[in-house]
Amino acid sequence: MRRKDDILWKGILEDVFDDFLTFFDPEAEQFYDFNKKFEFLDKELEQVFPPENDEYSPKIIDKLVKVFTRDGKEEWVLVHVEVQGQYQQDFARRMFTYFYRILDKYQKPITAYAIFTEAIHKERPNSFQLEFRGTSLLYTFNTYKISRQDEGELQASNNPFAMVILTAKAALAGKDFIDGKERDALLLKLKLELARQLLAKQIAKEKIRVLMNFLRYYVRFENPAINAKFEQEVEILTERRTTMGIEELLLDRATKQGLEKGKKEEAVAIAREMKKDGVAIEQIAKFTKLSIADIEKL
User: Fold this and answer.
1) Residue 143: beta bridge partners?
2) Mapping DSSP to helix (H, G, I), strand (E, B) and coil, where does residue 144 land?
3) Under a CB-based contact definition with an 8 Å cutoff, are residues 281 and 296 in contact?
4) Tens digit of each residue's pLDDT (9 = 90 or more) over 185-201
5) pTM for the structure as a whole
6) Are 194 and 230 a contacting pair, CB within 8 Å?
7) Residues 6 or more apart in contact with residue 203 via CB below 8 angstroms
8) Please, which contacts does 182-187 make with residues 24 or more away whose CB atoms are closer than 8 Å?
9) Taking a C-beta distance cutoff of 8 angstroms, is the pair 23, 162 a contact?
10) Which of the residues in the chain have pLDDT under 70?
């Protein structure tokens, strides 16, 4: 999965985290205090579980979030989002490793979620177990497989996070098509239908904006020129001449995620992907902090 998807998943989780909690836990509003700000502890998470440097290893988006309960106590919500189609065989062990390292460091209650975005329907394990001569351990966590979800139920949901799931599900459509034009036509139809559904829902304008941006960029066409057609249709749907485009979205994500200046290798990888998708070189330069000359060489 491209690194742009990492940025999009991290961003949308932060933008609609309250909806994420209520989507997966119907009693979340009674338990958590949504009036107190969520604190996203990405740096702290890296300290207990440093990211892998192997570019060929499956990529996992990890979020550690401090959430207050209604009784005033702090809770820790560990969110794992699998954003690559290739399943990692030791994923359950990895989930357990996160759990015991965070518990050891912070001594706080933890609830963990794993969301699988791969196309295949095979169910994935929700537990890790060890047993040896009378000593045993069982760790279970929440799992959610996007490809197995019912679209009708998601469309009927009033929770904004349901639109995130529908978007991720739409991105899986037509992956077995040989003809790229045929798949682009299907994706355009699906994206426009999701845009219509999103605009018809009673959702705060700011959330509509971030959800539309997630839809706009997460479901990608083989032919980047189709983006223009989608944007034209969105303008008609919203009855506006301007909408936040792909470049602005990436710049917004760059501000939130704070792309560090020293990570030139990562910046080059992102710039290469953006260039493939037809993003203007000037906008790529603003986002990655690379020079226009360097970008033109990619």
Assistant:
1) 114
2) strand
3) yes
4) 999 999 999 999 998 88
5) 0.75
6) no
7) 160, 211
8) 183/222, 184/221, 184/222, 184/223, 184/226, 187/219, 187/220, 187/221, 187/226
9) yes
10) 1-4, 51-60, 80-87, 178, 239-266, 277-278, 283, 286-287
